[in-house]
Design brief:
Blueprint (H helix, E strand, L loop, with lengths): L8 E5 L3 H12 L3 E5 L12 E2 L5 E2 L5 E3 L3 H10 L10 E5 L2 E6 L12 H6 L1 E2 L4 H5 L5 H6 L4 H7 L4 H7 L4 H15 L9 H13 L7 E3 L4 H15 L3 E3 L6 E4 L5 E6 L2 E4 L2 E4 L3 H10 L1 H4 L2 H4 L5 E12 L9 E8 L2 E7 H4 L10 E7 L9 H15 L8 E15 L18 E3 L12 H20 L15 H20 L7
Parallel strand pairs: 1-2, 1-14, 2-10, 6-16, 14-20
Antiparallel strand pairs: 3-4, 5-9, 6-7, 7-8, 11-12, 12-13, 15-18, 15-19, 16-17, 17-18
Protein name: FAD-dependent oxidoreductase
Organism: Nostoc paludosum FACHB-159
Length: 503
């Protein structure tokens, strides 16, 4: 451990998965760490809070998928038990139930991606349409999460990708685009093909159990972040809410020496940014020192997506077959999910009525509506999926509007995203939108990039041990062979043909 006056000072900006992960590791290594959070509490968009009436609400429900190896390792280290058991899920359209997913790890394991295709129970989608996905496996093999692969596929839209590989229009409409609407939060024509392949592979196609999911038995803020922050503070770090960063102080050697929050200045030997794209753009807009760097100015080319989170209390118990459900086809460019909180959250297990969380992604058209306009729409959509909701009376509700809340992986956005290392030698980036080669997505990627940024600080300042980051599970043997053959052919082709298109 580093002693008192010799402690190196690190400032971390943003108290979500990335910022908490970086702060926790650096505090354990003896650094003097200050974590600055613009909001009123740690956790950012995944935290959750209580209403004045004492009811728990949050900015959408967040699942924890089977390949979240690093987050599950953290949970074990913290000695907490925040999760449900593995749950089954369904998919609905205005026509009714479309898909049921089993718990894949309970079934005989088949070579990827056969288990995903054979064990998923499609109610209406004909076999011929499902088989039309087979040519797409070439793109899955070709996309290996390398920089070259991202540059090959990032300018292509997801819709173009599926069309180019002759995926049937029905399979795209009824299966792949719904995955995009709740996975990348936008319709296919607005999603990068590279991000699409990365997301689909990580969550669904790489290994049979990858789509299995558990949920927090309450808000993530209460079940995970509160005990985690207590552990972080015991390790010596300061966690300061309501601190909005406005600028950096840079010395003559182009090193950052301080982080400015209005009238406060926090001295720093290293800085980690761990905020989303929208938050980072706000910081850049007030910071002349960040605006002086092209990489930060270019963040204005990146965007984010609107989310609407609703929580509804009904006057009676309604039988909901599965606790987590995704829905498509209700609005042309919006996906939504609904969750049975009586089944998932301890707080509502003995509730006399039904408590539902319904979250809408790419919810642009909803945010300008009043609560009184939104709630009947949500109940009508729920009743389309489960008719018993028609007779139920809504007795309480929460509506949370989240403009520009989640990362938009738009076509062509990769070239503007930041690496963990920046042109400031002691400023490092983390978050689910940062370029890295780990291969994870969403909350797991945010946490992993926080650990990666902490490791860069350890390397830069030369004190402490790096965090051990668990890699994603290795490709199955047949995928490794296919990727090796594909790369051999690609290398041979490049050796005999000129490079007509530069990446």
């Amino acid at each position: 451990m580093v002693e008192g006056s010799q402690q190196k000072r690190v400032v971390v900006v943003g108290a979500g998965w990335a910022g908490l992960g970086a702060t926790y590791h650096l505090a354990k290594q003896g650094y003097d760490v200050t974590l600055l959070e613009a909001g009123s509490y740690p956790g950012g968009l995944v935290a959750g809070w209580q209403t004045p009436a004492g009811k728990s609400v949050e900015a959408g429900i967040h699942g924890f998928w089977y390949p979240y190896r690093n987050i599950f390792s953290l949970i074990n280290e913290l000695g907490i038990n925040p999760f449900t058991t593995w749950t089954r899920s369904s998919q609905y359209s205005p026509a009714g139930l479309e898909v049921e997913s089993p718990i894949f790890q309970d079934l005989p394991r088949l070579p990827a991606p056969l288990g995903t295709f054979l064990y998923t129970q499609f109610k209406r989608l004909p076999l011929i349409d499902r088989l039309s996905a087979l040519p797409l496996l070439y793109a899955v093999v070709d996309f290996d999460n390398s920089d070259a692969a991202w540059r090959r596929y990032d300018f292509l839209t997801a819709r173009e990708l599926f069309k180019d590989f002759n995926v049937s229009a029905r399979l795209y409409r009824d299966a792949f685009e719904p995955m995009l609407l709740v996975g990348l939060f936008a319709p296919g024509e607005q999603c990068s093909a590279a991000a699409t392949l990365g997301m689909l592979y990580y969550f669904i196609l790489a290994h049979q159990p990858d789509f299995d999911v558990v949920w927090c038995r309450g808000t993530v803020g209460e079940k995970i972040f509160r005990p985690w922050v207590e552990r972080i503070e015991k390790a010596g770090a300061r966690v300061l809410p309501k601190r909005r960063v406005t600028d950096l102080i840079v010395d003559n050697n182009h090193r950052v020496k301080g982080v400015v929050c209005g009238d406060e200045v926090f001295d720093a030997d290293a800085v980690i940014f761990a905020v989303g794209i929208t938050g980072m753009k706000k910081i850049v807009s007030t910071s002349p020192n960040l605006q002086s760097r092209e990489e930060f100015r270019n963040l204005s080319n990146l965007g984010a997506i609107d989310v609407l989170a609703t929580r509804l209390w009904f006057d009676r118990k309604i039988n909901i077959p599965r606790p987590s459900n995704a829905c498509f086809g209700f609005d042309a460019t919006t996906g939504w999910t609904f969750f049975d909180l009586n089944a998932l959250h301890d707080e509502y297990r003995n509730e006399p009525g039904t408590v539902i969380e319904a979250d809408f992604y790419h919810a642009n058209q909803f945010l300008s509506l009043s609560d009184e306009e939104i709630l009947p729409i949500v109940q009508r959509y729920l009743a389309t999926c489960i008719p018993e909701f028609r007779q139920a009376k809504l007795i309480d509700s929460s509506v949370i509007r989240l403009p520009q809340a989640v990362t938009h992986f738009a076509p062509g956005s990769y070239r503007h995203m930041l690496q963990a290392k920046t042109s400031f030698e002691n400023v490092f980036m983390s978050g689910d939108w940062i370029i890295n080669r780990h291969g994870s997505w969403s909350q797991e990627k945010a946490y992993v990039t926080g650990l990666e940024a902490a490791n860069l600080v350890v390397s830069y300042l030369g004190e402490g041990q790096p965090s051990e980051i668990l890699p994603v599970e290795a490709d199955e043997a047949h995928i490794e062979v296919a990727r090796s053959l594909n790369q051999t052919v690609r290398d041979f082709t490049k050796s005999i043909l000129p490079e007509f298109w530069l990446p």
